[in-house]
Each structure stands twice: as C-alpha cells, then as structure tokens.
Amino acid sequence: RKKVKIVSFDMWETYRIISKIMFPNAICAVDHFHVKQEFSRKLDRIRIDVMNQYHSRKKYFEKKEDKSEAEKLELIEASRHYYALKKFNWMFFTNDNRIFDPNIEKKYNTVLEGYYNYYDIFDYMVRKDAVLDLAYDLKYELDKFYSRSTEKNALNRIENLIISFKNSQIKEMIEFGNTLSKWKYEIVNSFVPANGRRISNGLIENRNKAIKLLKHS
Questions:
Q1: Is 89 exposed, middle or buried (0-12, 13-18, 19+ CB in 10 A)?
Q2: N or C: which terminal CB in the chain sees fewer CB atoms within 10 Å?
Q3: How far is CA 142 from each of CA 21, 26, 135, 173, 209, rounded to the nearest angstrom?
Q4: Phi, psi of 107, deg, nearest 5
C-alpha cells in the first residue's frame, strides 16, 4: 500500500478519505471525465430551465384568444426556441465539428421555416439567450483548461477558471465553481503522468460497467 503513487477516482468524498488512509504516500487525482460529466449535468439543467421558460410562454399565448400581431410573432418564436432546445440538445455536449462549421450544406427545417445547418441551429439556440451563451462559453473555457494545461501550469489555470465560474452570476455555474474549488488539488494531480501518460480510472469504470450489465442480464 505504501508503494502506491497515484489513486484516481470520481468526486465522491469517501474515496478521498479512504485513499488517504489506505495509501498514505499516494497523491489523489480526479479523472477529467467525472469533472466534465458534472459540468454537463449543470449545463443541461440550464438548458432545461431556458427551454421550460419558452414552453411556458408558448402555452400562455396559445391559450390567449385575441392575440395581437406582436403576440402571434412571440408565440412563433417561443415555439421555435422550445423545439430547437428540445430536439437539438445533444449539440451542447458533442465535439462534432459540424456545429462549428458555418459552410456545411443547409437543409430546410419545417418548424424553423428556413434553411439551416447545425452551425445555424446552434447559434440560434445559444446566442439568443444570455445565460446559455455564457454557460457555453464557460464550457469552452473548461475544455481549453484540459487541452492546454500541464502539470506545471494547471494550478494557476484552474484558479483563473474558478474565478470565471464564480463570477458568472449563474447559479449552476457558481455551484460548479465551488466544486472545482473543493477538488482543485485532485484535479491538478490528474495532470501528473503515470508511466508516461495521464492517470485515468477509465479502465476500472469500463470493468464496473461490464459487471453491472452482467448482473442486470
């Protein structure tokens, strides 16, 4: 046990406590997959809240009998935003380059009543809402942190990242900033190489999934 150098786990406090007891000379690291997974939950919560706001407006104007022209336009716009946020929610969590390429071929969308590609639809969803816009910008900052940080600069970079999240004035993003702060050193330790590569608990996660599937079957 004293020869173990690094222990990798997800963000469950018990793992941190047990690791420090059982492996006294090891450093603790949080696998980046679990950090991004937690962020995705927060981002999806924001998406759902915004989507439900459009849905409420849609229902309100649908029930109204004598609608003005402005209200009819607002109903159409609320319906379109609700549709886009519900049908294309996967765009918030993908690395598909099509959503970043404005030159991809456009196809006619019957609900949006126009020619759109994935870039246009994503821009329509995100850039029209300040909260979603900022939340997705923070996702980019998190991705950049993991792609550009090293063992030497990770601590300084994560401290700047925490400030960005806590200054966002978005409840879910502030909560995620607190999570980053709580697990700051374990996240930084994930950049320490083990046998020439970054530590990950992906292998054991895969084995665990296989066991669960077998038990379920």
A1: middle
A2: C
A3: 31, 26, 11, 11, 26
A4: -125, 155
Mean local confidence (pLDDT), 69-86: 94
Q: What is the pLDDT of residue 171?
A: 96
pLDDT digits (tens, 9 = 90+) for 104-149: 999 999 999 999 999 999 999 998 899 999 999 999 999 999 999 9
CA 56, 58, 59, 63 dihedral sign is positive
What sign for the dihedral angle of Cα 47, 48, 49, 52?
A: positive
Contact between 28 and 19 (Cβ < 8 Å): yes
Distance (Å) of CA 95 to CA 113, 124, 140: 27, 18, 11
Q: By C-alpha distance, which of 21, 24, 28 is closest to 6? A: 28
